[in-house]
Write a structure and sequence with these properties.
Length: 125
């Protein structure tokens, strides 16, 4: 099963965006990660799905993708392939597990993420 976890937004100023989502919209700050490529990520949690804010010069500002959680990335990609939906990236290791991207019929990026058990225990309970 594919579960939506967050929408990913590329922002000009992470500090300004965190303040807006926290103080104006009432989200709670989840966790923050500084990436080796100079980008930074902050997860902002709400009652439902969260918002992933990314500041990085290599990205264009705006909506980036829908982030999902899958139990078995390889199996999910095989099942999607049976329906004519192929990954647009290889499986990429990340700090929280492994991921690959697909496109919906409108060209919207969907990130399929197989999170590590450590990540799930710490952030998804």
């Amino acid at each position: 099963m594919i579960k939506v976890q967050y929408s990913t937004l590329i922002v000009r100023s992470l500090a300004e965006s965190v303040t807006f989502y926290r103080d104006v919209l009432g989200f709670k700050e989840g966790y923050h990660v500084d990436l080796p490529n100079g980008a930074a990520i902050t997860i902002m949690n709400s009652e439902g799905a969260s918002v992933e804010l990314i500041e990085g010069k290599q990205f264009e500002t705006g909506f980036y993708s829908i982030g999902t959680d899958v139990d078995d990335l390889d199996k999910t990609l095989e099942e999607l392939k049976e329906h004519g939906c192929n990954a647009i990236t290889p499986i990429i290791p990340t700090t929280v597990g492994r991921q690959a991207f697909i496109l919906d019929p409108n060209g919207v990026r969907i990130c399929l993420i197989e999170h590590t058990s450590e990540y799930k225990e710490k952030y998804m309970n």
